[in-house]
Specification:
Elements (H helix, E strand, L loop, with lengths): L4 H21 L9 H35 L26 H12 L19 E2 L2 H14 L1 H5 L1 E5 L3 E6 L21 E6 L2 E10 H5 L5 H23 L9 H4 L1 E6 L6 H10 L2 H4 L3 E4 L1 H7 L11 E2 L9 E2 L2 E5 L11 E6 L4 E14 L8 E14 L5 E6 L18
Amino acid sequence: MAVTITEMLEKRARLWESTKKFLEDHTDKDGKMTAADAEAYEKMEADIKEMTKTIDRLEKQVEMDKKFALPTSSPLTGKPQTAVPGAEEKKGTASDAYKNAMLTALRTNFHKVENVLMEGVDESGGYLVPDELDGRLVDVLEEENILRKLGHPLKTSGQHKINIVATKPAALWVEEGGALTFGDATFDQKFLDAHKLHVAVKITEELLYDNAFQLEKWVIEEFGKALANAEEDAFLNGDGDGKPKGLYHDAQTGITIPTADITADNVIDLVYKLKRPYRKKASFITNDGTLGALRKLKDLNGNYLWQPSLQASEPDTLLGYAIHTSQFAPVLAAGNVALAFGDYNYYNIGDRGRRAFQELKELFAGNGMVGFVMKERVDGLLILPEAVQLLKVAGAGSGGSDDAGDDDGEG
């Protein structure tokens, strides 16, 4: 009988408690362990990590089952070729005819192009992705890309202007009959532009023309994952040169530590470097490798800061705040960001227009291959740097202090 997600979560929680007790029982007063005990502890920790990966896979499987369980067509409630009363007919790139014509064109290497596709020709000669597929591509992007889930996506038709309050009004006491004092409210402006991102693939003609090949599913998953990975890397690390400006580029440095040895106090200090209003919806972002060090941290009462999730689809927590990992977050090393903490809803993601397909005609014809490109235009920007605080490791040869930071938060 297959194991359930709930059973795996309970099993992981029990193993975590056993691991904590083992560490407490086998650590001497100087915090040291024998080589054998250390090896046993690392084995237990590795088992927890593997369980976590298994739980992630099971949760994704459940989500995919839900999607594939949805009906692919509506039951006939009227006479053939008679419109359902009250139903709004889909038009343009949202119509079933457009979607079917796109899949037919893909399978025939665009030798069979129906007139309906002319409604979705973009400026560079490609074809806009059908609405249904584009929506499901966004689902893949959100599933794979943590900033798509945590950030604030926007649809833009041109350069998008964002007004930021630079100075805020202050309340002043005034005597009865006294003169009023007026302050000047000033505003700053930031702009979301558009940077082009594309993924290009080659497919054999035999595979493309094979009706058993699930072309639609493959396009959504493989193109979507490739775009999502490139986006997530840029949304975190981008410098704004030909790509979005990443979260780490503009976020404030709350804490700088001298070496890559994170302590519980460092994490607690980072939380309270973030101003109180932002802490309401804040969470952590870190690298998978750094998570191993964070999971060993304890508070002054000997309680672990990290707690595993006991509910499916819920993230693990650190100090009671959700913690997310990304393969594109920097590794724990000198000069790198070790941990981010903030309200990522202030990271704005601007999607310009729609995603589009384009055929690479004749380029690989001699090899019996067909080339396709999917492209999008997107930008990203942290509009309020104070909404995210970073814990950084000092660079080689520099000092570093637990008190270092750009801006103190409110308690």
